[in-house]
Amino acid sequence: MADSPIVAGMDLNRLNRIAEHLENNYLAPGKLPCAATLVARHGQVVWQQTQGLMDVERALPANSDTLYRIYSMTKPITSIALMQLYEQGRFLLDDPVHKYIPSWRNLQVYKSGVHPQFITTPPARPMTIRDLLTHQSGLSYGFSCRTNVDAAYRELRLDGHSGLTLEGLIDELSRLPLEFSPGSAWNYSLATDVCGYLVQVLSGKPLDDYFAAHVFRPLGMQDTFFTVPEDKLARFAACYQYQDGDTFSLQDDPQSSHFTRRHGYLSGGGGLISTLGDYYRFAQALANGGELDGARIIGRKTLEFMRLNHLPNNTDLPSVSTGGFSETPYDGSGFGLGFAVKTDIAKSQTIGSPGEYGWGGMAGTTFFIDPVEDLIVIFMTQLIPSSSYMIRQELRALVNAALVD
């Protein structure tokens, strides 16, 4: 038997198992519409493949430049943008949020009742900017469907497409109670949208303009935006919804999608469209310590700080989380400033390295960076919710099995 080809210390025959696994277990049985996977190591793309249909109804194949809704994979970009302003001395992480959002000075914590008749109590301390970056703010998401507070989020349609502006979102949140006193627990939430608002306040630029000037153009990310331009619409994938019986139905038609026009507020928590190649450029800049092709978007020490576990007493998510949903398995993971951070490999029950960091999106997209192995993995598909299948953990097994040095 011939020796396997090795590139950047990875066995290509073993990486080919990824495509076989996705085809046999997800694409052929009709569980997923499409799958695009990229594996990079030591600064080079080692293996990349795009499979399936980006638009099942129109029988259009997914390509290397297909545009995907990355939803919460927007969050690390927003977090980097805010920390760029931190590097310029514009704020401190322990600054109270109300220093920059005066209407939030008297935020209260939920005690009982339903909207609009809440009974509240004062927080133990004010919310800080670090609380926003680490999801320890006490804010929530309407789709959590867990408490009377997130029921108010749903009633007020705060999760994105109600025509609300970013300023309007901040105003509505100023009148709602927090789930818990800031810093006392972890809850996946609209906090990163608030970080996007702070980018606007601190920079004096709309969020889309700031991203373009300070992240996308420096990194050569020409296909990442909040609104799909008309001349790129032919590359925009359809999005699907999981159905019982491991099938799916159309959730968002690319030709009538709200992503093709200005809609609601610019969501730093989940509003971006991107490609596999564009997001790789962002991830590679992070893997390089904040720089790609001579363009530095964040300082090395700042990024090292962001990749630390910022949960109290270096604990992991299960011990502080109030909700069951997030874009990462909880066990063995802490949380930094905008990323999940792997803290205990054995407890996570998936292969990896201490300090591995990354995040995912609602439609099944994900990325992670392993700084020990100098490894990047990015996966794109378009199936809501992201918890439909355990592909993220399976990818870790398949990719790490290909490491030979």
The total beta strand count reads 19
Query: Helix count?
Result: 12
**Percentage beta strand:** 15-25%
CATH architecture call of the largest domain: 3-Layer(aba) Sandwich
What's the CATH H-level homologous superfamily of the largest domain? DD-peptidase/beta-lactamase superfamily
Question: Strand sequence of the main sheet, in spatial order?
Answer: 5-4-3-18-17-16-15-14
Mean pLDDT: 96
Q: In the CATH hierarchy, what is the class of the largest domain?
A: Alpha Beta
Alpha carbon gyration radius: 21 Å
Protein name: Beta-lactamase family protein
Q: If you had to describe this structure to a student in words, what would you say it looks like?
A:
The chain folds into 2 domains: 6-81 and 206-400, DD-peptidase/beta-lactamase superfamily (Beta-lactamase); 93-200, no CATH class. The chain contains 12 helices and 19 strands. The chain has helices at residues 12-27, 74-87, 129-133, 148-155, 166-174, 191-203, 207-219, 276-287, 300-306, 317-320, 345-348, 391-400, and strands at 6-7, 10-11, 34-41, 44-55, 60-61, 68-69, 109-114, 117-121, 239-243, 247-252, 273-274, 291-292, 295-296, 333-335, 340-342, 357-360, 366-370, 375-380, 383-384. The strands form 6 sheets. An 8-stranded antiparallel β-sheet has the order 5-4-3-18-17-16-15-14, sandwiched between helices. The chain has a 3-stranded mixed β-sheet with strand order 10-9-19, with no helix packed on it. Strand 1 (6-7) and strand 2 (10-11) form a beta hairpin. The model has no long low-confidence stretch (mean pLDDT 96).
